[in-house]
Automatic annotation (TrEMBL):
Name recorded for this polypeptide: MFS transporter
Localization terms from the record: Cell membrane
The entry's keywords: Cell membrane, Membrane, Transmembrane, Transmembrane helix, Transport
Entries under Gene3D superfamilies matching the protein: MFS general substrate transporter like domains
Amino acid sequence: MQSENPQPPVSKTLAPFRNKVFRSIWAATQISSLGWLVQTVAISWLMATISASDLMVALVQAASTLPVFFLSVFAGAIADNFSRRWVMFAGHCLIASASTTLMISVGLGFVSPWLILGLGFLAGCGFALNDPAWHASVGDILHKRDIPAAVTLMSVGYNIVRSVGPALGGVILAVFGPLAAFALAAVSDLAPISAIWRTKWEVRSSPLPRERMTTAIHDGVRFTAMSLEIRAATARAALFGLASISILALLPLVVRDQLKSGPIVYGILLAGFGMGAFIAGMGNGFLRKVTSQNRLVAFASVACAVCCLSLALTSSVPVAAISLALGGAGWLITWTGIDVSVQLASPRWVVGRTLSIYYALSAGGMAAGSWIWGSVAQNYSLTSALEGAAGALLLVAAAGIVLPVRPWEETDQESSVFHPPDVALDLKPRSGPIVAKVEYLISEENIEAFLGSMRTRRHVQSRAGARNWTLQRNLQTPSLWTETFRTPTWMDFLRLNHRLTAADKEVAQHLLSLHEGEVPPQTVLSIERTTEAIRTRTSTIFSRPPR
């Protein structure tokens, strides 16, 4: 629930904790994450002991991330069309089911590599449902200016738990065995389920009916593809995930084969990774002040490359722990920076889908990376895999030149108020196609400024749903320009206008200032009709002033 009171332009790191709903779900998520990390240690080590295949060990990471790749876009469309609160609830129920089943299976002595991977996949389906809905809900629960701090707190919170969870998992695994670790995970999953059940928050509802899932997915993909900021951030995330997952995917093999140690050392090293992420998270605000976001993400990739190279060359546990702290810092800085960039570049109507596409491609990169680096380790050597990953991370850092992560900007991404025009026909939601035309009178000296604004206008209208956008200049009256676009149906036209944000409509205001006519430009709407027999041969036209 957003506060209407004026706030300072830059939020302090802990400001989101003032909100009771965010605080409650955040705390419950950390409890669940603690159980999940304990379970991850137990699963990874259990797989390393029951399977001789290096590839199967590396695929433990892929099993829980692959569903995010396949299902996130669908889950994002669900998060934008249904109650995000209940989508989160369903996701955590899936995660709890997977943990409980694993606990029962281990208790009965029925465990196999494929069962472990299968239940990891089921938990991954729960994450695919929960994560887009939870991250998209941050903008519903908090004020927009608090989003960067909230995303940082979510990452820092997870990495605080990461500092404790793996070490705790190693101790539980060594002292009590895997069954106790799986039991703790199953119980901890009840915390977010309870928190989501008890809390509620207000969400601005759309006056329009829900979109069909296929249409919603198509619109989300189109918006993402047409947004330069989101497209670059998502591509960067996929490349970083592919290269950096080598650190976590190969760490059990580093501990087993290179450090000649057991689960306690594995937990300690993961705790070092989490501690580095925690320190970076607390200093993230300061780092953003001293350098650009794009350069910061590039430095983070270099830090992860140094981590991989150090792990490939060392046989010392303290050196490995320090290296992993550096890798954890790079990991948090990269994912936090990209996550916030995607959120702030996305209007509320599509934020679940843009986040889900970002999660899908980054998870796909991590799943592919787990398989690639595991295959390299199995067919060549562990050292070769880590050195190859270090080289790939340096290339990802260099990719910032062509795929820059844009600075965070607090633009108004809320949908503006739109009043449907009065029409002379009884239009149904599926009536169409609808053709919109807007005429402008532009003087010769304003043509360059007009064309520049029209380039932005085309981008804004097209990513909101406009089709076949064109701009024509009248040959008999050169000062007369006509903007034309189509939508498949009347409902699509209404959705397009509801999706335009206040920032988008600033473009229309600038065009209005360039218009030389005595009256504002009029939007003329038509519905196309076929000339086939028994069909209406006329096109009904009506007009309205632009809004």
